[in-house]
Amino acid sequence: MVIALAQLMVVLDATIVNIALPSAQEDLGISDGNRQWVITAYTLAFGGLLLLGGRIADLVGRKRTFVIGLVGFAAASALGGAATTAGMLFGARALQGVFAAVLAPSALSLLTTTFSDPKERGKAFGIYGALAGSGSAIGFIVGGLLTEYLDWRWCLYVNVPIAVIAVIGALALLHDSPTHEGARLDVPGAVLGCGGLVALVYGFAEAEPRGWTDPLVLGLFAGGIALLTAFVWWQTRAPVPLLPLHIVKDRSRAGCFLTMALAVIGMFGLFLFLTYYLQVILDYSPVLTGLAFLPLTAAIIIGSTQIAARLMNRVAPRLLMAPGALLAAVGMVLLTRLTVDSSYSGDILPALILLGLGMGLIFMPVFATATAGVAPQDSGVTSATVNTAQQVGGSIGTALLNTIATTSSTAWIAAHLTDPAQRELVTKQGIVHGYTVAIWWAAAIMLLAGVVAALMVTAKAPRHGTPHQEQLAERAV
């Protein structure tokens, strides 16, 4: 629960400020062009520095890194809550991302090394996967409540008490692993890998306001790909590589990373559209919008802890992940029928339940399978790679699907606006049309995640008892 609490805080912060953003923008005088930096500063630092954070966890010690990450994250959150200028808020959000990049890999690697018994491991990863998958939706609920009844600043201050509880729990309950003598930090690898990821995430963030063909966006993509290519080349020659390539060369593990990235691309884009659909088209309040996501959160938790965790020791991971992706895709297809007059109970609720159950079936086996059987000294960087897939996928999904939605809406409105008296109705219809086009893309990407899981994740179901533990020990040695 201590580890899951820390993970919840990290995932929560990717979305909790979304609903608070209009209030913060007005309060601090942030321009429309710069408001995206409240979101992007966090995801940019988080996604870009995760690999480095994972390796630091392996070198310094996971418990120590976990506590440092919690304390730093709480301090950055307090600074953001007290922000008096736009620059101060952007800086605090970036600092949150830096400490989240240290905290998230150490949390997952602690989970990996603490629970080795297959049955206990299934329960632990069920809880972890549920919170990792539903944290974004919980962020909308908490963000709505805090913004409406307290103040937008509490969307940042709320992390302080959570971190205090987690630090006390960590000091009392968690056990550190021994650090490895002679281990060194791969500085060139860190510069190339983190630089490449930051360039890519920044490129996707700028694609939304600037367009995909903007010279800056194209330059960032080209630079990111060049840096990541150089990173892969260097990892084959580095004496102590930042990301040992044998981690990615494992077919099942690579399949898990790719499945996670594709599933999150679809899911994060959908969160964005539904938030705006409920508030702009159906006129929901921030609190009501947050509560509308509650069935999705509940479905993810049920799918992860009650279905996936119970079946994980009996069936191969892909037999959970591929049907999960199919369920989620069906939920998304249901949402393509949205109109300006759609009802929540008839049109949105069934789709959210299917989507939640599907995501629960994906997240839990992905986390458990990707980190299974990894040598202890590599567990931090493996955990960081799973988190990187999640963060980069989220950034890509938001930018890619939002651009598709905006372009489709603009074209539809231009083609159908013949009577100026009907401008408001046609504009709303055009916006919803853009959402449905983007959701079709999201459904297709989710199906692709299912295909990847079915074809690439060849790991078998773990066996009960000591043979599996002996196998883990042998692989660790």
UniProtKB/TrEMBL annotation:
Coiled coil: none annotated. It comes from Streptomyces zinciresistens K42. GO terms for cellular component: plasma membrane. CDD domains: MFS_MMR_MDR_like. Residues 1-462 form the Major facilitator superfamily (MFS) profile domain. This is Transport integral membrane protein. It is found in: Cell membrane. Its main location: membrane. GO terms for molecular function: transmembrane transporter activity. PANTHER family: BLR6921 PROTEIN, MAJOR FACILITATOR SUPERFAMILY MULTIDRUG TRANSPORTER MFSC. Keywords: Antibiotic resistance, Cell membrane, Membrane, Transmembrane, Transmembrane helix, Transport. It is a multi-pass membrane protein. The keyword Thylakoid does not apply. GO terms for biological process: response to antibiotic. The chain crosses the membrane at residues 34-54, 66-88, 94-113, 125-150, 156-175, 187-204, 216-234, 255-278, 284-303, 315-336, 348-375, 438-459. InterPro entries: EmrB-like, MFS, MFS_dom, MFS_trans_sf, Sugar_transporter_CS. Pfam families: MFS_1.
